[in-house]
Amino acid sequence: MIGSLVATALWAMLPAYVPNNVAVLAGGGRPIDGGRTWNGKRVLGDGKTWRGTAAGTLAGVLLAVGLNAVNGSVSAAIGVELPTFPYHAAFALAFGAMCGDIAASFLKRRSGRERGASFPGLDQLDFVVAALVFTRVIAPDWFGEWFTLGVIAVVLVITPVLHVGTNVIAFAIGVKNEPW
Ligand code: CTP
Ligand code: MG
Question: What percent of the chain has pLDDT over 70?
Fold first, then answer.
């Protein structure tokens, strides 16, 4: 029971987990805020770029397409019926994750935190909350079918753990400037 909840939660959230990591690798170029400030502080900062956001969103959607292709064999192998992603759900998960991260940067700048500063709690949950909200709005039927209360609870518990883990690894191998 808990095993199938975890499997469903992980699978359903993969298109939301990958975009931020791809943005780290693909980011750069023109910042979304164009260098603009608000009350003397950058609106978003140089860490939120058009290229990173587009690449991250595209990567999440492509990953969902790939997961759909192997859904049958993986579901059979683990004995759990895993979700397939319609395009609008895949987009909502990936783009929602990117927007949550962007919204977090907006809040960090308003509270005087420089680019790269940590904001415990917000850093770990910004993207997952936004991905869930976007999906609930853009793909309500699909959301209702797969994101039961149990799955949502598992997502909220395992996401911070996975996020901290992958960022520590990305920092250790030198692709990220800070371990958060
Ligand atoms: N990135 C990007 N576009 C995004 C998100 C991330 O280009 N929408 C890239 C940037 O190169 C960024 C890196 O990924 O520096 C790491 O992302 P993140 O930790 O979210 O940004 P920070 O640089 O730490 O800035 P912030 O304090 O605003 O989070
Ligand atoms: Mg950061």
Answer: 100
| CA distances (Å), origin 50, targets 44, 102, 117, 146, 180 | 12, 11, 21, 31, 21
Residue whose CB lies within 8 A of the most ligand 1 atoms, among 48, 101, 125, 126, for a mutation test? 48
pLDDT 10s digits, 34-82 = 999 999 999 999 999 999 999 999 999 999 999 999 999 999 999 999 9
Model pTM score: 0.95
End-to-end CA distance of the chain: 32
Ligand 1 proximity of 109 Cβ (cutoff 6 Å): no
Q: Is 174 exposed, middle or buried (0-12, 13-18, 19+ CB in 10 A)?
A: exposed
